[in-house]
Design brief:
It is built from 3 helices and 6 strands; from the N terminus they run ββαααββββ. It is an alpha+beta fold and 168 residues long. Strands 1, 2, 3, 4, 5 and 6 form a 6-stranded antiparallel beta sheet that branches. A hairpin with a 5-residue loop joins strand 5 and strand 6. 19% of the residues are buried.
């Protein structure tokens, strides 16, 4: 028996989006951005805030703490005009066609390959890795899994991340 696609969250063409990628504008990392991030999350280690302390610890400049890559992920793709935002306040950022009226953050996991320092220029590529539909207590859900690769100006991967967005 064929499943009624009108009860699915994803449109019929959504699965064609698996493998699609977008590479965002490069993000120049500054000592001030790292400092703002550290203050916001309560990090006080001098290697993140003071160049001399960072150099004394063997770094070329202040080093971003683990998790700083999220500031990049939430900045570059979201520099879009207000009129292009979805009703939930998010942007079209590689979201496959769906009947969803809500989008929520799901699971995220990451691997850190090298440090990010002030002066680095980071480029993020986001790829739809998979789509899966399930039925939850409140109805149908779709899980969109993204792979994100953060690379420095030399093309070296500094962080890889898998992120799931839930559509409802």
């Amino acid at each position: 028996m064929k499943q009624d696609s009108s009860r699915n969250v994803l449109d019929d063409s959504a699965h064609e989006w698996v493998g699609r990628s977008v590479t965002y504008d490069s993000y120049p990392v500054t000592a001030m951005d790292i400092k703002k991030y550290c203050i916001a999350v309560g990090i006080e280690d001098p290697v993140h805030l003071d160049r001399d302390a960072a150099v004394a610890a063997g770094h070329p400049h202040v080093v971003a703490p683990a998790g700083y890559h999220m500031a990049i992920r939430h900045t570059v793709p979201n520099l879009i005009p207000l009129m292009d935002l979805f009703p939930d306040g998010g942007g079209p950022d590689l979201t496959p066609p769906s009947r969803a009226s809500r989008r929520m953050a799901g699971e995220s996991s990451m691997s850190f390959h090298s440090d990010i320092h002030a002066g680095d220029v980071i480029t993020v590529t986001k790829t739809i890795a998979s789509l899966e539909e399930k039925v939850g207590r409140a109805g149908p859900l779709a899980f969109v899994t993204y792979d994100l690769d953060y690379r420095d100006a030399d093309g070296r991967s500094v962080v890889t991340e898998t992120y799931v967005r839930i559509l409802r």
